[in-house]
Design a protein that fits this description.
2 domains, 7 helices, 70% helix, mainly alpha
Length: 147
């Protein structure tokens, strides 16, 4: 399951994100909530909305490990009740990316870069120090190749 937000799957991923945010921030309806920002962007620039949704999706999935257990369970149940993949499958997106980058020895896209960066800077992530060092090197190679 590779994450690529398109016109066809935008509503699908937006609903998943909505489930997360409704559990993370229940009953809060502020002007700059992520869902309100996405709604505004959809009207102004759909390309921006798709990129924002993709970034938000990646961020929220990478933050799952920091959520209280009860919240994770609640989100997981709601996802499954709405015929969406469960939390483990969503987290698999991140782990699959890390495995692919380690196997290939190179970061190919900015999406991969940001997923890797999140794992490298998170000292509580479950990657080994050897893999963390390799991933850091791959990040540097990508950064310097863009200059």
């Amino acid at each position: 399951m590779k994450l690529k937000i398109t016109e066809e799957n935008y509503a699908y991923y937006k609903k998943i994100i909505e489930i997360f945010y409704n559990n993370i921030h229940p009953n809060i309806k502020w002007e700059y909530s992520p869902m309100n920002v996405l709604d505004r962007w959809e009207k102004e620039n759909m390309s921006l909305a798709k990129r924002g949704l993709q970034e938000g999706f990646r961020d929220v999935v990478s933050q799952i490990k920091e959520m209280p257990k009860e919240m994770i369970e609640s989100i997981d149940i709601e996802l499954k009740n709405n015929d969406f993949p469960g939390i483990r499958k969503l987290q698999g997106l991140v782990k699959d990316t890390i495995s692919k980058v380690l196997k290939r020895g190179k970061i190919r896209t900015l999406d991969e870069f940001y997923i890797i960066k999140e794992m490298v800077v998170d000292q509580a992530s479950d990657i080994s120090e050897a893999d963390r060092a390799r991933l850091s090197l791959f990040m540097e190679e990508l950064e310097f190749s863009k200059k």
